[in-house]
Design brief:
383 residues; alpha/beta; TIM Barrel; nine-stranded parallel beta sheet; 12 helices; monooxygenase; oxidoreductase activity, acting on paired donors, with incorporation or reduction of molecular oxygen; 5,10-methylene tetrahydromethanopterin reductase
Length: 383
């Protein structure tokens, strides 16, 4: 099982000091936190993608490449890659390039994005969000799995004899997680392709998460990718820890009360009772995370949000020390002991290459496309 952290890259005022970090400070802090995650033995760092204030995570591939150049083992991922407002051709090119640069030490999580004003900035309409996610991923999947693509859809210009370059490393495309909080269509999409399903697991009660994961698992089996138990599931969650649980509650409360995604809603006590948010001692975090298995089954990836809501970098680094030294080692041992035979491990490039029987030889046919006009010979009759 893979353990790690994810960040959404928010620039939030620290409610205890009144100070707001600059964009430069926030971007640099993201790197420092990622390097710390590898130092304490985590498996994954995932960075977000947003195109509106107060976020600075607009270019995840740039950030991932920079982190990757300074790390050796940790997997770089996204939280999320916006499949709705990012051209699938650019996703295919950018993430395949990143795959080569990192020697396969990466994957990505696709998401729709729920900020309405962002869609028009990229010529899209949020009311088409599901349709965009479905069509754009169909194209992305084709671009990575077929050397020469002829494609026509509703939301972008057609492609004729197109080859996305570079081709995926070893002929094996990056692993894809489909991220969703509330959309069953996305769980269905993940199941259809045999990809992973990532449930953010922050805002909703366990009963909702259970239904979403159960739907994905049943449909994964329906499409013939494996048994119900073999479906690939990832969960998110946020934790805040101190050695003494009441110290954790007292310290985190002002951040919770003013957080962009929490503030103004239920109390901290109500939220921690009704959702997976856990504020307390390392032992309480361990107990809570182990309970996720009761409604999500045996899953492959657990990511924690650690740097949200204006928490200072020093505090986040202290949280990572606790996570790496006291929490994750126990979780690894306990989850491994509970895991039945036949449940797959978290996906890696090496495991996917092995499943494919080794590196896949690429035999790209020469597309019969006019280099000046981009049209094929068979299209001439239609002119």
């Amino acid at each position: 099982m893979q353990f790690g952290i994810f960040t959404v890259g928010d620039v939030t005022t620290d409610p205890t000091t009144g100070r707001t970090p600059t964009e430069h400070e926030r971007i640099k802090a993201t790197i420092e936190i990622a390097l710390k995650a590898e130092e304490v033995g985590l498996d994954v760092v995932a960075v977000g993608q947003h195109h509106n204030p107060p976020f600075v995570a607009s270019s995840p591939t740039t950030t991932m490449a920079y982190i990757g150049a300074q790390t050796k083992h940790i997997i770089l991922s996204t939280a999320t890659t916006l499949i709705t407002t990012t051209d699938p051709v650019r996703i295919a090119e950018d993430y395949a390039t990143l795959q080569h640069l990192l020697d396969g030490r990466m994957d990505l999580t696709l998401g729709r994005g729920n900020t309405g004003p962002v869609y028009p900035w990229f010529g899209k309409d949020i009311r088409d969000g599901i349709a965009l996610a479905v069509e754009n991923y169909a194209l992305l999947h084709q671009l990575w799995h077929e050397d020469v693509v002829n494609w026509e859809g509703k939301f972008r210009t057609p492609l004729h004899g197109f080859t996305a370059t570079p081709r995926p490393l070893d002929g094996v495309a990056p692993f894809v997680w489909h991220g969703s909080i509330r959309s069953p269509e996305i769980a269905e999409q993940a199941a259809y392709y045999g990809d992973g399903f990532f449930h953010n697991n922050i805002f909703w009660p366990s009963s909702h998460t259970r239904r979403m994961v159960d739907l994905y698992r049943r449909r994964f089996e329906h499409y013939g990718h494996g048994s119900y138990e073999q479906a690939i599931v990832g969960l998110g969650g946020q934790v805040f820890m101190r050695k003494n649980s009441q110290d954790a509650v007292n310290e985190f409360r002002p951040y919770f009360d003013k957080a962009p995604v929490y503030g103004g809603g239920p109390s901290l006590e109500d939220f921690t009772r009704e959702t997976p948010l856990t504020v307390g001692s390392p032992e309480q975090v361990i107990e809570r995370v182990l309970s996720f298995r009761e409604y999500a089954g045996d899953y492959q990836r657990q990511l924690f949000l650690m740097d949200h809501a204006g928490l200072p970098v020093k505090t986040v680094l202290e949280q990572l020390d606790l996570l790496g030294e006291e929490v994750v080692p126990v979780l690894r041992k306990e989850f491994a002991a509970l895991r039945p035979a036949g449940v797959p491990d978290g996906p890696t490039h090496a495991s996917m290459v092995a499943a494919a029987g080794g590196p896949v030889e690429q035999n790209m046919e020469e597309p019969q496309v006019d280099k000046w006009t981009g049209t094929r010979a068979e299209d001439d009759n239609q002119l």
